[in-house]
Backbone:
């Protein structure tokens, strides 16, 4: 239990055991699905267009391809990093509250403990603000997961490759996730891929890029993904050149896939309430773009809540 831990090292040892256990479950499930597909499916056109399937006389489903691998998603990394630093600061460094109080707050979704929740949200360091301590926790979580999945093989003997990508699952998985020590309420969305959680990157665009540069993107063989939001003012006048410089710097520092929305929150809210006024407003959602008016309310709210950087 949470109040049995005497240090952050004790807590992380338990975290590592949980990560290994659920990784075992996930990889077992993935391999079971592949075995089932081999009995139920064939992809002849895909196989004809994939190297070595014809030469091997095997459908891609059966392992006929030259390269047989699976990908697995590391989801919720920013939330986990923010939560771990919160526990470290409040329980083991400052003794702001007791472990029992924290556990009770999480079980009860911070009901009657709004002051604690505000403290966790606003006074504890957050990933995405150029703070080494929390950024390095996020990086270490990715390294841990990569190290674990390196042990697994699929039914064809191929490896599992990691990607740091949620697609649109940050909404549905958030609904299944209880309150967390970073101040996030039960059911609220998780962070998109490796982007900071909504509203948490408060120190500007450069700070976000610096945080992203500490993530080991090169370990995500199936790619990492980030969506950043820029107010249109960042692309006006001399700011446009600085914006380009920031992108170049991010690439030079090894940041993976970057996606951008250039729109302010007021415009998005107006488009939400008056869609007929913004029929051609498109936004980056998650690996794809879509007209804002065609998104459901939940996704619209999620995009609106992301910080719109002005500097």
Residues:
């Amino acid at each position: 239990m949470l109040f049995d831990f005497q240090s952050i090292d004790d807590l992380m040892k338990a975290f590592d055991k949980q990560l290994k256990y659920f990784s075992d479950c996930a990889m077992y499930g993935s391999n079971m699905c592949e075995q089932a597909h081999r009995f139920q499916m064939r992809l002849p056109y895909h196989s004809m267009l994939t190297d070595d399937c014809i030469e091997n006389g095997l459908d891609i489903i059966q392992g006929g391809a030259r390269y047989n691998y699976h990908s697995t998603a590391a989801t919720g990394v920013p939330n986990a990093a923010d939560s771990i630093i919160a526990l470290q600061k409040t329980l083991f460094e400052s003794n702001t509250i007791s472990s029992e109080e924290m556990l009770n707050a999480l079980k009860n979704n911070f009901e009657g403990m709004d002051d604690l929740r505000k403290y966790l949200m606003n006074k504890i360091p957050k990933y995405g603000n150029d703070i080494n301590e929390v950024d390095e926790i996020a990086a270490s979580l990715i390294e841990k997961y990569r190290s674990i999945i390196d042990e697994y093989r699929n039914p064809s003997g191929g490896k599992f490759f990691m990607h740091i990508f949620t697609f649109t699952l940050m909404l549905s998985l958030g609904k299944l996730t209880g309150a967390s020590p970073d101040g996030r309420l039960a059911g609220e969305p998780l962070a998109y891929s490796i982007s900071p959680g909504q509203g948490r990157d408060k120190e500007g665009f450069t700070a976000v890029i610096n945080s992203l540069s500490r993530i080991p993107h090169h370990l995500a063989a199936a790619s990492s993904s980030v969506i950043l939001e820029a107010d249109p003012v960042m692309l006006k006048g001399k700011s446009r050149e600085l914006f380009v410089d920031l992108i170049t710097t991010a690439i030079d520092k090894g940041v993976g896939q970057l996606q951008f929305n250039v729109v302010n929150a007021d415009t998005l809210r107006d488009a939400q309430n008056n869609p007929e006024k913004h029929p051609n407003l498109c936004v980056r959602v998650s690996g794809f773009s879509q007209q804002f008016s065609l998104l459901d309310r939940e996704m619209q709210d999620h995009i609106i809540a992301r910080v719109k950087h002005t500097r």
Observations:
- DSSP finds twelve helices and seven strands in the chain.
